[in-house]
Design a protein that fits this description.
324 residues; alpha/beta; Aspartate Aminotransferase, domain 1; 2 domains; 11 strands
């Protein structure tokens, strides 16, 4: 990847003159069966741009209660797009058609206009759960039946595609906008893209500018994205298998509860009290292993490109040596 970055041909992307960025954008748009794409620094920016270009102030967005666009983007929907959110409580993070139809506001001046159904795939806070293509089709068709637009936060969409054996090409027909990330399982240092029609991407570029995301000779980073898409997608299955191995070992630990069977590369589980949380985090950190907390007592492990089988063995030994 570094060699590809160093060899990249670059230009001024603000003027559409960076041929490597242009190639990445065309590649990703074609992958998802859509017309155009726009390269941005982060997935938060691509989600926020998508919301800006498919909503109007006083609209409302339907999404899962733990959705990244709602929970982890600093209130950006309200701040950047002046829209509200209708959050849906579903244990696995997977919205159903009735979750859309039952939460559309009536046409009444007292309520915001329901305008977008937003999905996330895979679902981070639900433990990396995935939609099937049929589930996507069902919920987006219901949304469009009610004249709603549709957005996909695909920060980990390649994990979902590999897990379900689906094709990215099929996704484009179901969404007005899609956000994809290159810097998670695919291993790039930076970068996400928002995808949609040419008309929407023209609006997206204006929004990217005002949000401070216009970049100059950024083909060095785009080259990393092209390399990752060519070499790092199918290997995500290895991350999924390692996550399953970790989950299997966790099932033998008496202090673990509510373990979510991993569908992708995220292992999510609960611990009984703060003392065990603190001691387990410290125990792992002392052995060079970092973990994160999703909630006060909910811990998350994530497998990734730079976590290999030798490190997995080390990790399992660290778990086995912890005394709750």
């Amino acid at each position: 990847m570094l060699e590809a970055m160093l060899a990249a041909q670059v230009g001024d992307d603000v003027y559409d003159e960076d041929e490597t960025v242009n190639a990445l954008q065309a590649k990703v748009a074609a992958m998802f069966g859509m017309e155009d794409a726009l390269f941005c620094p982060s997935g938060t920016m691509t989600n926020q741009i998508a919301m800006r270009i498919i909503t109007e102030p006083q609209d409302e967005v339907i999404c899962y209660k733990g959705a990244h666009i709602y929970k982890y983007e600093g209130g950006g929907l309200a701040y950047n797009s002046q829209v509200s959110t209708r959050t849906i409580k579903v244990g696995d993070g997977i919205l159903k058609p009735t979750d859309v139809s039952a939460n559309i506001n009536p046409d009444n001046i007292h309520y915001p206009r329901t305008s977008v159904a937003a999905l996330e795939n895979s679902v981070n806070r639900a433990g990396g759960t995935c939609y099937t293509l049929q589930e996507i089709a069902d919920v987006t068709q219901e949304a469009r039946k009610h004249q709603l637009k549709t957005h996909l936060d695909g920060a980990r969409v390649f994990n979902a595609l590999v897990a379900k054996g689906d094709k990215a090409q099929e996704y484009g027909q179901h969404f007005d906008t899609i956000s994809v990330c290159l810097s998670k399982g695919l291993g790039c240092p930076i970068g996400s893209l928002v995808i949609g029609s040419k008309a929407l991407m023209k609006k997206a570029k204006r929004s990217r500018k005002v949000l401070g995301g216009a970049m100059r000779q950024v083909g060095y980073l785009a080259a990393a994205g092209i390399y990752a898409l060519d070499h790092h997608v199918e290997r995500l299955a290895e991350d999924h298998q390692r996550a399953k191995t970790i989950a299997d070992r966790l099932t033998t630990k008496s202090y673990i509860s509510n373990l979510v069977p991993p569908q992708t590369n995220i292992v999510l589980f609960d611990l009984p009290n703060q003392d065990i949380v603190d001691r387990l985090l410290a125990h792992l950190k002392n052995q060079g292993i970092l973990a994160g907390m999703m909630d006060t007592l909910t811990m998350r492990f994530v497998t990734h490109l730079d976590f290999d089988d030798d490190q997995l063995t080390q990790f399992l030994k660290a778990l086995d040596s912890f005394e709750a």
